[in-house]
Amino acid sequence: MNAPTEAPPLQQHQREAILAALRAVLPAECLLSEQEDTRPYECDGLTAYRQLPMAVALPQNEEQLIAVLKVCRQLQVPIVPRGAGTGLSGGAMPIADGIVISTAKMSRIVALDPLARTARVQPGVRNLAISEAAAPHGLYYAPDPSSQIACTIGGNVAENAGGVHCLKYGLTVHNVMRVRMVSIEGEVIELGGAALDAPGLDLLAVFIGSEGMLGVVTEVTVRLIPKPPVAKVIMASFDNVVSGGDAVAAVIAAGIIPAGLEMMDKTSARMVEPFVRAGYDIDAEAILLCESDGLQEEVEEEIGRMSEVLFRAGANAIAVSQNEAERMRFWSGRKNAFPAAGRISPDYYCMDGTIPRKRVAEVLVGIAEMEKTYGLRCANVFHAGDGNLHPLILFDANAPGEFNRAEQFGEAILALCVAVGGTITGEHGVGIEKIDSMCEQFEVSEIAAFIGVKRAFDGAFLLNPNKAIPTLDRCAAYGKRQARGGLFKFVKQVNA
Amino acid sequence: MNAPTEAPPLQQHQREAILAALRAVLPAECLLSEQEDTRPYECDGLTAYRQLPMAVALPQNEEQLIAVLKVCRQLQVPIVPRGAGTGLSGGAMPIADGIVISTAKMSRIVALDPLARTARVQPGVRNLAISEAAAPHGLYYAPDPSSQIACTIGGNVAENAGGVHCLKYGLTVHNVMRVRMVSIEGEVIELGGAALDAPGLDLLAVFIGSEGMLGVVTEVTVRLIPKPPVAKVIMASFDNVVSGGDAVAAVIAAGIIPAGLEMMDKTSARMVEPFVRAGYDIDAEAILLCESDGLQEEVEEEIGRMSEVLFRAGANAIAVSQNEAERMRFWSGRKNAFPAAGRISPDYYCMDGTIPRKRVAEVLVGIAEMEKTYGLRCANVFHAGDGNLHPLILFDANAPGEFNRAEQFGEAILALCVAVGGTITGEHGVGIEKIDSMCEQFEVSEIAAFIGVKRAFDGAFLLNPNKAIPTLDRCAAYGKRQARGGLFKFVKQVNA
Predict the structure, then answer these.
(1) Which of B128, B255, B391, B443 lies at a 20 to 30 A Cα distance from B308?
(2) pLDDT the model gives residue B195
(3) Which intervals hold domain FAD-binding PCMH-type (chains A, B) (predicted)?
């Protein structure tokens, strides 16, 4: 039950044969093979990892995509599917002797049914474009990753994208009803449907978040929901991270599901404030943003209850957005944390892990200790409501050793996440970045189950190979390395 | 990519060897092989299909279960896992030369964490027992199938059980966070976790509803939710089924998600009223039950809005439950529809399919026509809110031809469900009952994907073989039969 071995590099004539076969099934403008054309595809949002592909195919429709997949299947060409390339874990990083399949030319909203509250869209449609199309009907598409202006629904499906509102409105998997995809054999398969439950196995849920390893999406049916008439956000200051962390747990324990519940530490607030002027309290050790949305009275009532809970949990100041402009300003700081990091540090490494909400304070303390161990600063932003951590490790790639230390720092954070009962990724996926951490997270039997399902869809391992799911050999090698290096290898804790 | 062929019957010495191997790993009281002991296991809630198994194993713990599975794997013995045997599609029907694994002796609540709002329970714990254990903390487990007094959480996981409240609170898959199971290889695999998203493939969702085909559950971690302080139910009468059906769509379109939204036709109301004295309007052509739960003020407000919508949609009378006793009485009629059918008819056949909400009226008219075609009466009860239909076909098994006609009637109803864009099962599963209808619902490529995933977990097809997923040969034979018989074979409609 083991997966692919590295193939030897292709000879020039083999590459030419593959390109010729692809040219036969695609219009000229839909196949890029010159370096100047393929260069923009050499990485995704994880820019530290780059690789030029043999070619980039941009099919215009399902027929062309089927033809491309059949060529690849027949000639054993590995494939990397790609949406907008905004992913942060290198899931869309090309393979030297493989091709990238971009869905950029399949970007049509096929149907929008305001009564059924659904939209049927092609994979290259941008996340925000769906909400824009739905807006005249008072509807929108809920998942809102930070990249929502650029990222596509096909990529969202591949990564099971979340966003600041997913605590209340769910991830991609909770907002997608049906996916139409093409398998590596070139067969069309439809997953899911309009009903709450469907007979057979729930392959829709498996497909969502499968990082391009099971098939290539050609159409997605999403659920649209009514835009809440009112939204307000509370900004609460805390003079230590422990009470900030406890406040998060207190809000949830009070039976409130905020529309958003985000936390930033002092480093993050100070990093972002000069850049966006969000009005953040830069003397606070932690800032919480708690949003409420719904009908006017509901929002007033919930904001009142949340304020009470936050004060009781130790907030020393609370501000409530007084209008939509102020609400957007409060959020803009949080949403611009990543670019802000780029302004104060030559490089930064955005981690992504989850932890149980009640362990927030403890993990922050642990990360503070690691800052000393690795000699690097770390700014912490959180989707606190669902325990999804985004530590931004600040470093300078030109300073000797800093890149390596940043990577080790990141790995140590993930190990800590697993140790407290969390996971190695909240929403950015595994991709190439965290493939070794998968060995930390899962038992051999569990990795073997993933490989088994992968094999069921793609026995030749041509779809995004060496991403997301490590081979058992790779995990064995990782285990040995960890043991040798004496790095902490935590015992897996079952957190019920 | 095809699945199991029928094995020839075992010789007596082979059966003895298997029983001896099982005896070696189980205490004497945990293995039943005498007919008088195995008789209670010969069928589940689909009593028309019966088969005595070779033996019934009742492991007391995970170690014993692993040992049993290893014996079966080695000796190629097919296995049927079984919870309480309340399933309605024959998923737990035994195999002549196979064994039943009952989880009845693994019935301990391992841990209940009122702060994290989770319970960790063994598979044989009854659905209602979880809510009873959580009640002192003001919590409960939401999915409430009609069989909740008897059915077990292991069986709920296998069937992805729903209930009258699943419109608002979701199915089993939405309320289970983690499953621990043993594969046919005897390996322990944990699926899911505490985080909103998890890295790797979402095998938890695949497992839930997989009808015992992927592994045997040993522990389930469920989400508990706060018991709403108040609940009220509206009973609304309609003088035709079309306006009743339209009222369902109108409630949802008004942005209301009722805690329950059920519909009964006149036949059902008249069938059930003399039996339970629920106070139903037996002159109405359709009755809707709409429940609201939450805080006092929320419930009052929602009951008011729902009443308005229902009147506008054509209700000619509305009653609101005035106290908890009355609320229970209104529901008791709905919940006792099946036993009531048993009182007015020697036999009944409970179907289960889903349809888009807006097609309710049309499907009811179609079923009324089929009553004439097949010469049998049909009482209709609905989880109307999620379009889940439960037609009860009334027949007499002793009257020549009636059983066959009832089966054909049922198949025709399911074909109609698929034709209007629905599915062949809402919540009762496929089991043995609807395995042919799977061929109606899915394309060959889709069935092949199911088989592929099944093979990834159980390559020898020993776990509940010939249930839930048809072989491709079986679908080919079904297709030919339908064509020959001239029975309506609807074109699959994509309903976006």
Answers:
(1) B391
(2) 67
(3) 49-227
* Mean residue pLDDT across chain A: 90
| A188 to A76, A183, A242: CA distances (angstroms) | 20, 6, 51
Facing A197 at nearest CB: one of B189, B427, B495: B427
Pairing of strands A347-350, A225-226: unpaired
H-type helices in B113-240, by residue range? 127-134, 153-159, 166-169, 172-175, 203-207
CA within 13 Å, CB half, B369: 9
pLDDT of residue A195: 67
Count residue pairs from A and B with Cβ separation < 8 A: 218
Q: How many beta carbons lie within 10 A of that of residue A139, not counting itself?
A: 20
Provide the ipTM: 0.81
Rounded CA-CA distance B204/B176 in Å is: 9
Pick from B171, B178, B469: which is nearest to A197 by CB?
Answer: B171
> What's the rounded Cα separation, in Å, for the pair A95 and A87?
16
- Quickly tell me which residue has 């049309």 as its tokens: B362
| Fold equal for B12-102 and B109-226 | no
Nearest chain B alpha carbon to A430: B199
Crossing angle of helices A324-335 and A337-344, in 10° steps, is 50
Highest-confidence range of A318-327, B162-171, B480-489, by mean pLDDT? A318-327
- The CATH number corresponding to A345-485 among 3.40.50.880, 3.30.70.2740, 3.50.50.60, 3.30.70.380 equals 3.30.70.2740
Summarize pLDDT for B76-135 with one digit per residue, the tens: 999 999 999 999 899 999 999 999 999 999 999 999 999 889 999 999 999 999 999 999
Q: CB–CB of A467/A430 below 8 Å?
A: yes
- Token look-up 């619902």 returns B441
pLDDT at site B310: 96
Q: Which fold has domain A12-102?
A: 3.30.43
Rg of chain B taking only CA atoms, in angstroms: 23
Task: Say if residue B2 is exposed, middle or buried (CB neighbours under 10 Å; 0-12, 13-18, 19+).
Answer: exposed
| Contact criterion met (CB < 8 Å) for B221 and A113 | no
Mean pLDDT of the residues in chain B = 90
3-state secondary structure chain A: CCCCCCCCCCCHHHHHHHHHHHHHHCCHHHEECCHHHHHHHCCCCCCCCCCCCCEEECCCCHHHHHHHHHHHHHHCCCEEEECCCCCCCCCCCCCCCCEEEECCCCCCEEEEECCCCEEEECCCCEHHHHHHHHHHHCEECCCCCCCCCCCEHHHHHHHCCCCCCHHHHCCHHHHEEEEEEECCCCCEEEEECCCCCCCCCCHHHHHCCCCCCCCEEEEEEEECEECCCEEEEEEEEECCHHHHHHHHHHHHHCCCCCCEEEEEEHHHHHHHHHHHCCCCCCCCCEEEEEEEEECHHHHHHHHHHHHHHHHHCCCCEEEECCCHHHHHHHHHHHHCHHHHHHHHCCEEEECCEECCHHHHHHHHHHHHHHHHHHCCEEEEEEEHHHCEEEEEEEECCCCCCHHHHHHHHHHHHHHHHHHCCCECCCCCCCCCCCCCHHHHHCCHHHHHHHHHHHHHHCCCCCECCCCCCCCHHHHHHHHHHHHHHCCCCCCCCCCC
Contact A196 B468 (CB under 8 A): no
Give how far the C-alpha of residue A44 lies from the chain's centroid of Cα atoms, to the nearest Å: 12
Return the closest-CA partner of residue B312 out of B254, B352, B355. B254
The string of pLDDT tens digits covering residues B41-61 is 999 988 888 999 999 999 999
Class of A230-339 per CATH? alpha beta
Q: Are B194 and A167 inside 8 Å of each other by CB?
A: no
